[in-house]
Structures are given as C-alpha cells and as structure tokens.
Amino acid sequence: MIITENFVGSLSENPLALSIGMFDGVHLGHQSIIQKLNTISDAKNLKSAILTFWPHPRKVFNPTDDLKLLNTIEEKKYLLQKNGLHHLFLKEFDEDFRNLKGEEFVKQILVEKLQVKHLIVGYDHTFGKNRSGDFSLLKKMGPELGFEVEQVEAVSYKEVNISSTQIRNALSDGNVIFANEMLGYNYSLSGTVVHGKKIGRTIGYPTANIEVDDLKLLPNKGAYIVDVFVKNQHYKGMLSIGTNPTVNGTNVSVEVYILDFDEDIYGQKISVNFRDFLHEEIKFNGLEELMIRLDEDKRLTSEFSF
Predict the structure, then answer these.
(1) Do residues 132 and 102 make contact, with C-beta atoms less than 8 angstroms apart?
(2) Rounded Cα–Cα distance for residues 45 and 245 (Å)
(3) In this structure, are residues 44 and 117 in contact, taking their beta carbons and an 8 Å threshold?
(4) Each residue of 167-201: pLDDT tens digit?
(5) pLDDT tens readout for residues 105-133
(6) CA distances from 163 to 27, 29, 96 (A)
(7) CA 161 to chain centroid
(8) Is the dihedral of CA 197, 203, 209, 215 positive or negative?
C-alpha cells in the first residue's frame, strides 16, 4: 500500500476507484467498501484508494471536543493495508481544506489531483464547506468530469447499522464482544510499558502498566480478558482499566497481568486484544478482598478459550 500525505510526493500513476471518510475502526462496513473498491479497480484497471483526514474534522470544528478514536494513524494504516487497499491519501484537515466548497473539492481534489474515475460514498456522506457537497452534487458533476459515483447503504448487524459511533458506544459500555463483532476483529490497545505504583507485585499479581495514546478510546472502566502480545509472543492476560479505587488511586491507568509470565519488560512495546468483559471497576474493602477477586478473574481467564 502506498501512503501519500498532503498530496506531496507519489500520487497514483493510475486513475482511482476511491472512497472518502475517516474510516475510524475500519469496521465491517468500511471493509465492505474496500472490497467493492478492489473489485472495481480489478475490473476497470484502476487502483483502489481512500482519502482520509487527520486530525478528525470534529476536533477542528470544535477543539474542545473530547472525541476518542478507535484507531491511531498507525493502526488505521495497518488495517487498511491488511484489507488489500492499494493507496492511502492522508490529508491534514486544515483551514484551507475545510473552506473548500463542494464543487471546488470535486474539481480540485478528486479530479485534478487524484484522477478519480469511480467514487464510492456512504449513505449519509457530505463534504465541503457548510456541507455543500452531497451525493446529488456528485451525480450531477460525475458525467461532466468523467467519473462514476455510487452510494452504499450501511451494513447491519443484529438490527444495528454498523458505524464507528455504535462501536464507540459499545466499548464505552464495556460490551467488547459486540464491538468486536461489528469491527470484524478484536479491539486492541498498544503502548509502552511504564513504571506504576507496583502494588500488584506485593499481592502476587504484578502488572504491566501500558502508556496509551491520548486519542485512543479506552473501553469502560473494569476488568477484561485479553490476548497479550509482547516480544513476539502470545499470552493470556487480565486487564484493568480504572483508578485503582481500593488503594485510593485517582488517575486512570491501563494495567495487564500476564499469565505464566515473569520478565522485566519496562520500556517494551506491548499490545492487547480485548476478548471478554469480567466485571466493572470495584472498590474493595482492602487488599484481601481484592486478591480473592483477582484469583477468580485469573481462573476465568485461564479457562477462557482463546
């Protein structure tokens, strides 16, 4: 997959079959669009491509918006490449870009810069200053400028239209199984292992504290069964998101206890995939009660079928 930032450097030598959007999560709905793009590109000698933006436009229009995302940029690149995309265009959503009117965006960006010959948009897609561009405008301009356009409907699962917002909501409720089903893969977090308060090791449950990207969405506070990937090895783990209320903690931390593991991994990169929810965050009446619950969580994690 070729990656081009801000249209600088390598643009596609071939005309494109393209879709536009944030593609946050690269969920099953997004994956169906990429499959369509690849099918069309094969049939028409085009290259499949996506134009996406950073930062998220919501953060530009409202800098105080506390929006958290399902993917970091690196995660999104990996997922798009995994789904067979040929070309990714990353565009900074700056003042000049946000002020392009719908018709200007179509002519200057889609046609002149990207040579779009087939465009796929979502059922509710709008673009350009004041949402001045929509499917009707694209249908009107397509024949004039030499590209075809099609609109796709949302992909549904369990009577829910799959969207990044629906997945964020599921994760915020701790419903990682439903989120994973809509994503088509297991939701993940990754980061560097940093020093914590080291309370876990005093009760036989040493944890790795993960420093996570500030823009990354954390599932609801509580305990989870996770896959753990460290030093190119896979382990079972139980992960806690919360403030450690039993010991009067205040800051939210992400800590994972790795089963059958006893190595120093400070400074190492670690990734976890969420598999199931154990329980919400609990304030216990002391470390003895906490240890009893941890023993039970460990039993459930050990018996979980990975």
Answers:
(1) yes
(2) 59
(3) yes
(4) 999 999 999 999 999 999 999 999 999 988 777 78
(5) 999 999 999 999 999 998 878 888 888 88
(6) 8, 7, 28
(7) 17
(8) negative
